[in-house]
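Handout, page 2. Input:
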Amino acid sequence: MTDTATSTPPHSTAKRWQIIITCADGLEQPLVRELASLDIAATVERTGRLHADLALADIYRVCLWSRVASRVLLPLAQTPLQAGDIAEQLYQFASTVDWSAWFGVEQTFAIRLSLDKRVTANQQFAMLRIKDAIADQFNARFGSRPNVDKQPDFAIVAQVGEKSAELALDLSGTSLHRRGYRAAMTDAPLKENLAAALLYAVDFHQTAYDALIDPMCGSGTLLIEALLMRADYAVGLDKAERQFGFYAWQAHDSALWQQLVNAASQRFDDGLARVREDLAAGRFCVIGLDADAQAIKATHKNLMAAELGALLPQITLQQRALASLPRALDAAAGNDHRPTDWQQPLVITNPPYGERLGDEPLIKPLYQGFGKRLQQIFAADTHPVTVGVLAGKVEHADTLPLLDPQTMRCHNGALTVYFRSGQLNTQPAPSIIEAYQKHEVTLEGGQDFVNRLQKNLANLKKTALKQDVTNLRIYDADLPDFKVAVDVYGNFVHVQEYAAPKSIDAEVAKKRFNLALVGIREVLGVNREQTFIKTRARQSGNEQYDKKNNTGKFFVVNEPSSGGQTAYFLVNFSDYLDTGLFLDHRPMRQLIADSARGKRVLNLFAYTASASVHAALGGAKQVLSVDLSQNYLDWGRKNFALNGLAENAAYQFIAADVFDWLKSHSEQYDVIFIDPPTFSNSKKFKGTFDVQRDHAALINRAMNRLSADGVVYFSNNFSKFTLDDTLSARYAVEDLTHRTIGFDFDAKRPIHRAWALRHKPAR
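Output:
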């Protein structure tokens, strides 16, 4: 066995040392960037390990200032390993080091062994043999040996790989990532050194960000690390009065160390005062939000523990769901300012991953909605908006609308995570209705269709832009030869072919439909990937809800909601007959949103819970969605996540037969929405449901659940429907059809009928 070992350490501060600086896997480049800011050049040797040639003062500065490093190691010896008894080889190897050159009999030590998983050896026994080698050497020389201690003067790090082993002194002592401000924690907290690394990844240390925003701040680690960095706080000060590994080192220069500590303390005093002034003057804005009130309390406690309490009066800390982010940022920006007035804001956050927190199927919609909401807030902003988000899966990070995004793979504890950062795309592609411009289109055999489509679009666009509507019907069998319905959803087109009458030859019908498709693409300027086609025939039972395909492709669309808010929805153009969002109910959803503030809302036959989303955005204190299909309720839950509406007791999803549920529950609700199918004979449904035959019984049961001053909104799409006269005799009934038919549907041929029903005043 061959090995190399260092000589006895000199006591000169001019001496330079070959030092190993370790970090968590994936944080190598942020650590290189940080060390460069300390005027220290380091090279990456391998994963989690950097090498640097350092003077004593440099070693101290790494220990004192590094926010990303884990340990600072002084290599002592290295040796190759052979097949066979690893523990015995480690004993022989450790015996070659002159341990008395590093510490004396009166001092204590401990062994920390890192064993490669490919190495077959008992870790505890291997550590014991290294300890034996040290003890035997001291006993042989001095007749006595130093003691092993859990809090030692010296920690000896043994790293055993598949082919070699090395020994080093740990100059850092306890891991450098540990901070002293963890007064309170939430579930799955972000490690302090990882938070710092993320900040270095977005150049926080050298960029004059004038706003720092964490919309899902948890216990505040990102905010605290950023403020400490901004305040020029040396994180090693927290344990400077306790113990670093180099305190008992024979090369330690206590005077030099104290000089550096004193200078660092003064820098923090000056830096904290500077940050306080910037906050007070509006030159810097700090915002921490979380849907969990306990998280906000934890952040407050941790800021105090981090000696940042003086900044709290100028920091915005609020319990806020992601849905209210636009309003929160508007308020934080000030009365006379908007978020778009910030010159260089940074939005950085660590959302739930699904592995520890949250429900994994809801995580992707959460990220999608977060990106959409940022685009809404900073729409057409001419200033750079930097966004950094930690994700548990790359595909979640992929949903973020970033320009030239950068990805850093790293770990938060045992979890592999991905940090995606870049400039927010504040100018996404316009929707189809926004981008539409009338232009010449010639289509032999289909010119009438093209002309009508152009005419409709010209009439609809102005109102659509005024109302901020991007999902609308632009054609609905207007011409007898072209029996199609054409809907635009944001940047996509959904074309439904009505089944041709038996009197029309199948080939003729097919030719006309193909002409219509060509005309649609030419007029709207869309490609095949943006166009989805279905044939719509008369349905029986619950056929309209049956799955047709299994692509699993969902797209995000939006529509206006209460109080200038925007509601987002997942739509699927391929797998079902319907998309998941009924365009004709857009005004009804708006009406529900406007009626919901402070109310208990019940959505029966909830489908994908789009009306429930609007109710929640409208400020409902409780929203309950009931539907027979768990599949659609799960879709609804994703819609809630997409809108940043955190799952809690206020928002519930119940898979049940509506009649049975109404019969077995006695809770009262202030707003009830009922949009039943025309007919259902689902296997899960007990018997059959016919809206004309059964609506009176259904409404009567719902009215039993309605508060004294509440309202039931009832709607259905059966063209021959008539409301039962007994309902008008028993309740105050108002026909809302004219109010709930949107500008993109023909009021003379209402696609649905709608009513409001209330209890009559007591006589």
